[in-house]
Amino acid sequence: MDYINCHIATQVKNKLPAPVQITAEQLLREAQERQLEGIPPPPKQKITDPEELRSYQLRKRKDFEDNLRKNRTLMGNWLKYASWEESQREIDRARSIYERGLDVDHRNTAVWLKYAEMEMRNRQINHARNIWDRAVTILPRANQFWYKYTYMEEMLGNIPAARQIFERWMKWEPEEQAWFSYIKMELRYKEVDKARNIYERFVVVHPDIKNWIKFARFEEQHGGSEEARKVYERAMDFYGDELMDESIFIAFSKLEEKCKEFERARMIYKYALDTLPKEDAKELYKNFTQFEKRHGDRMGIETVVTSKRRRQYEEELESNPHNYDVWFDYVRLMENEEDEEAIREIYERAIANVPLIQEKRYWRRYIYLWIYYALFEELVAKDVKRAREVYTACLNLIPHKKFTFAKIWIMLANFEIRQKDATSARKILGNAIGRCPKEKLYKSYIELELQLREFDRCRQLYEKFLQFNPSCCTSWVKYAELETILGDVERARAIFELAINQPIMDMPEVLWKSYIDFEIGQEEYENARSLYEKLLERTQHVKVWISYALFELNAEENGAVDRCRSTYERANNALRKTDAKEERLMLLESWRDFEAQNGSEKLDAVQKLMPRKIKKRRKAQNEDGTDGGWEEYYDYIFPDSEENMPNFKLLQMAKKWKMQQQTSN
């Protein structure tokens, strides 16, 4: 009865329509807005159990596959799925997902890029090459693929492959920037002729005047003014009078002006003004006027322009006399006037502004004012006496107890050599070494004496240099090489012996290699063998062992193969006692190659020593020291290692129990 009364009370009595009607559209909009509200992220989950990890991976894969079934064409789902598989170190699965995504939309550039970048991140270079090759074949107009492909090959040092890729790209006649990238790559490796050939093809594919100008400037920089002039002449023949532009005439005339061919530049300006319409030659008129101001008969106007610039420089220097960049510009302006006294006055005013702080970084720009001043006196003014005075005054000004500039000492010494005064040059460098010894000064002094064939002086300098810096390996090696060239083998050997006994060396591997190569070059194989033994007493590095073995193999003595094999056996026994598993694997691979090349029956024995590669797990730590979960890594198990011996732990426990029994008795 109570239930019936309650049911009757909750029935709707008023069935009239509500005054405000709610539509289905409003309901959907409200639901969408609630979905967009900020939902706190789920808590972070730490997985420490393999079963839990597999369950998590299975659940995530099911979610990703469900999303793909809902909307197969949404490539973002494919990318997220593949990225997640990569984060789980499942590279093969990630690769499979990318391939499935490409089957859906093979023209999507993002999928190709992410796919290739994943392979490069995991150092799968051949896979990355395969992907880039497929991408540029399917989408040859996607420049980003070509850029990344060539960049990858260049970073790997595979320049011929990068060049081939560029050539494939150029067959499609891409945009201008692609050609410039190709040219810049060739110039980075000093391939000027190849860059020139590319420019020849480029100006045909993109026949813009600006490209011809760039071609001419390239020739000016790498081929000389004559080659640049030929490019401008070809450009004029290519365009003819009807399609010519004022910019190429301006660039051509500036080239001739730079080459001091003022009459040729004037004729180019006049020809252009006669050929081009006036409305298309505004900049041409302006540049011609400026040219005439510089080199024509209008000397009065030129004087006014120069005076204006001088006033501007004077105002800047009045506010900041230590702005050395302004002094450089001021000097260049005065050098165009060809007034030696005026130039000398500016230099004197400039060098009078000594830096206020005695720190080397504040003096660097200032010292170059002195250098330019001395070069001006020597090369332009032809005043040798004043040039020497400038160098001397500069050296007297530098606080050598705090810092020095080896460049000034060396330039003054070379200046005296040009004046055929070797004695003064020696005094200058000797004074420099006595007051402020530096490695650069010693090397320059030694180089000077070598050029003068004063080998006894070179020996004395090397001895002082090595007393100053006994840890410099290259100096020891150079000293020994000098003695070798002079035929004093015993002296060279003594130098090497002193060097290897030094307690501290900057590059000991270079020194030992040079010493060993020296003994091999003298065909003193026993000495070289003794050196290897000494080196192995200091280090058991695998590269030393391999080098020792190869030395024994290449030594022109009987039984070289047996000695080489014996060295490999010693190395294997030595490395077996250490934890350097990767180094031992490197040694065994070298040993295996040696046995294979010599057709030995012991190849099978070496093969049996090769380890098994297994995957292990270990705890990882974050940078802050917190637990980072588990990570997988690869380890090597050698057949003769204790870890691979049966019942190893049982034997250990038995031995421990026996020792306890003996102690108790």
From TrEMBL:
N-terminal signal peptide: none
Q: Where in the cell is it found?
A: Nucleus speckle
- From which residue to which does any coiled coil extend? none
Give the domain of life: Eukaryota
Which GO annotations describe the biological process of this protein? mRNA splicing, via spliceosome; spliceosomal complex assembly
The UniProt keyword set, sorted, is:
mRNA processing, mRNA splicing, Nucleus, Phosphoprotein, Repeat, Spliceosome
Q: State a single Pfam family of this protein.
A: HAT_PRP39_N
Annotated Gene Ontology cellular components are: nuclear speck; post-mRNA release spliceosomal complex; Prp19 complex; U2-type catalytic step 2 spliceosome
SMART domains on file: HAT
Tell me the ranges covered by the Pre-mRNA-splicing factor Syf1/CRNKL1-like C-terminal HAT-repeats domain, including all copies.
77-355
The transmembrane segments are none
Its family remark reads: Belongs to the crooked-neck family.
Q: What does this protein do?
A: Involved in pre-mRNA splicing process. As a component of the minor spliceosome, involved in the splicing of U12-type introns in pre-mRNAs.
Q: What is this protein called?
A: Crooked neck-like protein 1
The scientific name of the source species is Trichoplax adhaerens
